[in-house]
Amino acid sequence: MNSDKTGMHGVWANRWTFILAATGSAVGLGNIWKFPYITGENGGGAFVLVYLACILAAGIPVMMAEVLLGRRGRMSPIHTMQTLAKQENAPGFFRVIGWMGALCGFFILSFYSVIAGWTLSYIVKMATGVFSGAGSDVAGAEFGGLLSDPLQLTILHTIFMVLVGVVISRGINKGLEDSLRVLMPLLFIMLVMLFGYALTTPGFGDALAFLFSVDFSKLSGESVVVALGHSFFTLSLGMGAIMAYGSYMPVQASLGKTVLAVGVLDTLVALVAGIVVFSVVFSNGLEPGAGPGLLFQTLPIAFANLPAGDLIGAVFFILVAIAAWSSAISIAEPAVAWAVEKGFSRVKATVFVCAFSWFLGIGTVLSFNEWSSYTLFGKTFFDTLDFLTSNIMLPLGGILIAVFAGWFVSQETIKHEARIHSPLLYKLWMFMLKFVSPVAIGFIFLHGLPI
Ligand code: PFF
Hints:
Elements lengths: L14 H12 L2 H13 L3 H29 L3 H11 L8 H32 L8 H12 L2 H20 L6 H25 L3 H9 L8 H14 L6 H6 L8 H29 L10 H11 L4 H33 L4 H22 L13 H28 L2 H8 L4 H26 L3
Helix pairs in contact: 1-8, 1-12, 1-14, 2-10, 2-12, 3-4, 3-9, 3-10, 3-12, 3-16, 3-17, 3-18, 4-5, 5-7, 5-14, 5-15, 5-16, 6-13, 7-14, 7-15, 8-12, 8-14, 9-12, 10-16, 10-18, 12-13, 13-14, 14-15, 16-18
4-fluoro-L-phenylalanine (PFF) binds next to helix 1, helix 2, helix 10 and helix 14.
């Protein structure tokens, strides 16, 4: 192995820090913003069921494989895949996992930062009492006003990207660990509090029915692809982010429990966010399929109904922004780590990655206003980038990771790295990785892609 590059980015203090960082990566806008709105657009219960099945059948097994490959390679995903493909005598083709992942990271970061910018705006709106006593009309008008202003969106996008850049340029250990240790539990507490509020609303029962009663007639082929893509997006899989974090993982930690903890936490956050959002939707006669604005048009109404709602709302959006920030850092990490291994300083590498993504993000900013009528197959610039990354590149990366780890990496290597003590669990995982995950992803691709 190319020893001069391995371990040059640092190591997590222990297994818990890895869980914290991986959860910080997984829990983000995907859970709180995207999951509720795509569930609304795709009809509810049946979509949620397919999403949960994808997490179990593809997400968890592929996540274990991704962490394993990272921990084995101990370099950026691009160099890790180059080295492992050679070491394991696998076709050089598998190096594409690293390259496609880095490219996908640029794309995702570009729009992720724009949406995270919305949360920054909502911190201010909440704190200044814009939504005091507001109903759905005020919430809708405020959101519409924000989207129609490209300059404001660009400024917010820029602020967020700078915040991301500052942390990445300082390296993974400094700053990130300490802040996440406090902030992630706070986010969970806030969500539980909002859940408590949702329980008291008249729409709570309808929200549960919408999310958990399954009606397959509402499910299209594209919905199934979206559910699969989202299971990868929400767990940060298929593009090397988790592989990069895995490469900083201490050698002793057991893979199965660690990954399971991250998967369960991530899924819980999404489901709770969904219940809260849809309780507000059904209590106020709103439209579940409202699209990307759903979170921003519903939660302000919830806060308007809570005591000290302005303050709680401001704190909530601060926490969402932080969850987005810890995810965005991991999105950029594979490309930054690669550039550092190539000899660039960490600061230069960060500036390059953030500047390129920032520039691409302007396309997403404009897709909500000036360019909203320019569409490709009915999709705006933002929709196209979102579809291409979540629904095509991430699952494709996932298939390749599953096939590489399942079929090409030697059993000794896998056994040595995985440290799964129960033979039964090990066999189950291998079976999933070799057969179930690739076949399920391939099948959904073939049947669901609108081409
Ligand atoms: N998992 C993050 C979320 O749910 O918001 C988004 C994400 C992070 C996607 C890292 C991809 C990635 F590599």
